[in-house]
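Sharing a chain and its predicted structure for anyone who wants a worked example. Both blocks are below, sequence first, C-alpha cells second.
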Amino acid sequence: MARHKDNLPAPPDLPSFRVEPSEEERDQQQRTRSVAERHQNTGLVRHDAFLDEASIDPDAAKVVRRLERHGFQAYLVGGCIRDLLLSGRPKDFDIATSARPEDVRSLFRNCRVIGRRFRLAHVLFGGGKVIEVATFRRNPQDLDEEEDLLIRSDNVFGEAHEDAIRRDFTINALFYDLDRRQVLDWCGGMEDIAKRMIRTIGEPSVRFREDPVRILRAIKFAARLDLGIEPNVYDAMVSHREDLGRAARPRVFEEVLRLIRQGSAHRSMWITWESGVMAVLMPELAAFLDDEESHPEAVSRFWRQLDAADRMTHGRGPIDDVVLMTTLFYEPLQEAMAGSRDRMRAAGDFLAPVAERIAIPRRIADGMRRILAMLPRLRAGRTVRAGRSGDIVTAAQRVLELTSAS
C-alpha cells in the first residue's frame, strides 16, 4: 500500500545558547595552559641548566612539584638560583608561583599565611625550616619621572615576567623550572652571572631612588659573592648614597648587619667606605678611616679585626650581632674614650648618634656598652662573674679574641 506523505509543519526555530565557563573554570584553564604559551611575547630566554638535584632542598622541590601538579606555575627564584649558578651554597630556597596565598594554604596543611601589606605563604617543615612561597607580583604602576620615586607599596599580583622585571639586580631575577631543568631569564641575568657582574634591572639611578637600600644590597653581593659592580651602577650608588637617609632605618640597620655577618665584613666595609656610603650612615667610622695618617696602627688593627671576624664566621659559624657591632666600632671607640675620666660616658656619647641614625636596637647598644666596660678586666686576666649576664660575658670574650687579632 502506498504510504501517504505526512503534511507536518516545519520545526520551530529554537534559541541557540552556549554555556560560558565559570570564573573558577576560566582560572583553571588559564593555569593549565602550557608554560611556553604562557610566556610568549614576554622577552623570555630559556637556558638549559642542569643544576645538581642534590644541591636543591628536597622540601622546596616538593612544594614546587605539588603546586605544578595542581595546575599552578611554580619556580625556584632569586638568591638560591644565583648562588647555585655561582657554585655557592644557598642559605634559603624561595618559590614564586601563580598560586594565591590561600591556594597554597589549601594544598599544604603545614602552611601559614603571613603579612598584612603583602601576604606570603610559609610552608613549615621539621627543624624550623620555612619555605617561603610568594605569588607573582608586579610594580603597582609605571611611574613618571618624578622627584620622589621611593616605592612605598608593591602589593599587586602579576605574572612571572612582571615579577622578574620588578626585582633589583639581573642576577636576582632568574627563575628555575625544576622539571624542565631550565633557567628562565627575562633580564639578561645569565650573561651577568657569566661575567660575575652586578647590574640593575633598568636605569641604576631610578632603581636606587625607588629603594636606596638596594645600594647596600649591591655592596653585600659584591663582597659576599666576589662580584664586580658595573661602572654605571657604581656611579649611581655614589650619586644617590644620600638617599639612604630616606629609607626606613630598621631596614638600613638590618642590611648593615648583613654586610658584616656572612664572612665578608672586610670587603663589605671597604666598599662601603670607598663609595662614600659609610660617610652617610656611619660618619664617625668613616672619619676614623679617613684620618689614617693620624693613627695608621689603629686603622691597620681595624682591618685585621674584620679579617679575624671573617675567619671566625667561616670557621665557627655565625657571630652574635652584639659582638660584630662592638668589633666594628672598637677602634674609634677606643679613640673616643682615650683620656676621658668617664670612659663609659664617652662611649655612650659616641654611640648615641650612631644608634639614632641607623636604628641600632637598645638591646645591641646596651650590650656594646656593657662589653666595653668588661673588656679592661678581661684583658688584664681578671675574672668577670657571669651571674645572670653569662651571655654578655661570652660575647665580651669573643670581642676580646677578635680585637686581640694581630
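Comments welcome. The chain has three domains: 31-141+149-195, 198-281, 283-406.
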